[in-house]
Prior knowledge:
The structure is a homodimer.
Chain A: H1 12-22, H2 29-54, H3 60-71, E1 76-77, H4 79-86, H5 90-102, E2 106-110, E3 118-122, H6 124-145, H7 150-180
Antiparallel strand pairs in A: 1-3, 2-3
Helix pairs in contact in A: 1-2, 2-6, 4-5
The first copy, chain A, binds a DNA duplex through helix 5.
Amino acid sequence: MDNFKFTDRPDQKRLSRTIAEYGDPKTDVSAAVLFLDLQWTYREMQKAYDQVLAASDLTETRFIILMFLFRAENYCLAPSELATKLGAARPTVTKILNRLMISGLVIKLSAPNDKRSILIQLTPTGKAVLQKFLPRNFEAVQTITAALSASEIKTLSTLLQKINIGTRNLNLEEERHHGNN
Amino acid sequence: MDNFKFTDRPDQKRLSRTIAEYGDPKTDVSAAVLFLDLQWTYREMQKAYDQVLAASDLTETRFIILMFLFRAENYCLAPSELATKLGAARPTVTKILNRLMISGLVIKLSAPNDKRSILIQLTPTGKAVLQKFLPRNFEAVQTITAALSASEIKTLSTLLQKINIGTRNLNLEEERHHGNN
DNA sequence: CAAATATAGTTAGCTAGCTAACTATATTGA
DNA sequence: TCAATATAGTTAGCTAGCTAACTATATTTG
């Protein structure tokens, strides 16, 4: 749903009405608005960033995998290591690597010492794709953050950390709920 | 990839090195860190929020569709209206509605005046699910934002708008790139 | 008023994730 | 040491998105 292009979003007024009817009386409407704003900001940002990646025939996942290989010794990693680093399921990595092999950005090598395992290596083509893409990547990031001053960047970073605290608490809340059943 | 559980994320140091090699010399490393922080904060928050929804057998998309119906006249909307409001493709809506019909949260009515069209109506069961979920929803949002003061909420909202400006500029940049080819 | 066009919903088939389960090989430990 | 267990990669089949293309009905227009 991250790519939906909503034409009807709840505004302050509608949200207030719903909260008045169904929320705890001490619920802060502006907090709920902020939550929706954060979703919106990320989703729009990510759609734009995905387009930048797509212009180089990349997705963020493919890009990150290529970067892991780029920084690895001899440009090589086993699929299972990639899966761990990414935090993705091994079959997911298999599919992505197949795609990258077809495009010629990586190749499959047999691993010494372990006949179960293989090694994935970044090809010269893969390196070239990264070297071409990286400047564009940082330019795009610069554009995204250009309206913020250095001190605003610091402030935003601090405030995001406070959201992270809220997320951790929500996870704890959910675990507790589960436990109670 | 929003659900990946990364075990290897680029830190300040690695990012500096890559920017030094491939970024414009005036690229701001802390801006790049902020970009990754914003992605991280949203993704962790959303994973936690999705769990709250899942506890009521909801996804955010299903929840939003139910809310559109909840606020609609006679609790009825056509699938095509839902697709427009969501900004999703019509076949996507068809599938979600099939799922909601199986769960008994909505029913299909024939539209008067247009034999091509149908109407989707929220059932009493659907209403009950919402009425049970909404308090939990606002409680979760409250938990997420609890570490922020009222003034911090205002500041964060302002700073997110500055990211929105950056996103718009990135979109313009991309359009220009396309045009140039 | 009939033909062309537009709209509503669905179907088929694509991508990128996931889990479960399989095969082959390594490792552990009784 | 050899049987049990664990790990690596893959395959099959699930979900939630998408686009293209189909059928049926409305609307527009020559």
